[in-house]
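Q: For a teaching session next week I want to show students how multiple molecules come together into a single three-dimensional assembly. I've collected the sequence lines for a complex. Could you give me the predicted structure tokens for the whole thing so I can convert them for display?
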Amino acid sequence: MNQALTIFRKEFRDYFISPVGYIVVCIFLLVTGWFFFTTFFLFSEANLRSFFNLLPLTFSLVIPAVTMKLFAEEIHTGSYEMLLTLPVTHNDVVAGKFLASASFVAVMLAPTLLYAASVAFIGRLDWGPVLGGYLGAVLMGAAFSAIGVFASSITRNQIVACIVGMVICFGLTLFDKMVFFFPGKIVEVSTYLAAATHFENISKGIIDTRDLLYFASVVFLFLYGSNVVMQARK
Amino acid sequence: MIHVENLTRYYGDFCAVDNIDLDVRKGEITGLLGPNGAGKTTTLRMLTGYLAPTSGTISIKDYSIDDDLLEIKKLIGYLPESAPLYHNMLVYDYLDYIADIRGLSKGRKEERIQELADLCDLRAIMHRPIGELSKGLRQRVGLAHAMIEDPEILILDEPTSGLDPNQIAEIRDIIRHFGREKTVILSTHILSEAEATCDRIVIIDKGRIVADGSTEALEQESTAQEKIITVALLKADFASASMRFRLLPGVTGIELVESADPEVLKLKISADGRDNLREMIYSCIKETDWVLLELAKETKSLENIFRELTKEG
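A: Of course. Below is the structure for the complete assembly, covering every listed component.
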């Protein structure tokens, strides 16, 4: 447990040492800020809906870039061997790296609270959906981080890790929108599997345990997958 | 201390380590010696728990590597080949991080980092990023990394490869200093390295152990089996000389050696282990009018043993 926290601290700090972290935050804020404020005044509604609606897509694009280095870089440089021969378990390593990337996503999200503040300044903002939206964003960020950790664990090439992560995240986001012409049962299942559906529920301000459970199980599944990959590497 | 039985590891169809048995006692510096690709690194990686054996058992102290991997990792300080450390970290931060993962208390951590800074001579580079260091310096940081918890067992994979002679001497001193009380296993493909540092040498080839013993024992064993004597003569010709020497008891072969001076006949006589062979050769020469310039016993160096044991075919 302590080992996991130590790894978490080191990986989290790494994000702020290298320029990659800052670049990713900038891109994220630019993209979300641009899309939010260009349409905001057209609707003249005091809410953050257009920001949250787009979030599954921006996260699919940005989070894999945050997580791609976690394992791939270590495997490529060989420091993976050094890390694993320290007294740590696979779970410590996976948990530490996952927590670091999920926390970084939360940090990346924090400046967007300014959007909410500026909207509240202009009009009357209903804080319920906003809080729900941020809760959903953190949960979805955690789920996508877990996917990214998994994608990074399967390869030594960071670009491959990033692309695989993006494909899985985009898949989960867009899945239900691509199968509408299939029979009803399949649409139902795919709607359940799609991350965007659950995120939308929460960001409406409806907090349902099924949605929470969905994100928790995505996190668990992909972290478990990373553990299996590490085991197979032996 | 370390007990290995029937250790085997396959990579797909390729057998990297083939049924190795090995016992390492406490306080011994053991050198794993072998040509590139002999299975040294794979063996060490299995000892440290980085790779799982295909079959066979490893136990260290009373721990088995299948059940108590975490305990075993606590006992071992390991430096992988070419010291793959985090390049973006400062030396001090890195050692601090490793000490935290190994669960050293705050006071003990400071104390160990200071001790290792002296032992590995890191004071001047404590606040430089690891990525900017030269190979020799990085290797010293790697050694400090492996010794941070003052482990009972130190495992080093090619600790001196790619270093210059001064750096090699420095690393060797550190290893010997540590090896006075602790158990050290290191791998190398450089013979002089193993000869100079190790108490015991295990020669590995194609995944098997082909020789195992102390440096002296290995040398003696092979010289006892066969002896080579070089003779240099004046006024002699190969035909008559080889005819005479061949009659001596125990001689198994005579070989002409190229010599710079055409007047001088230089021969290599190999024989199975008789102690008085040189005497007999001398008295044999005395009967003729040849002039004896040189008569020397060639001891087989570790290098010859190594070549013989690991050559193709």
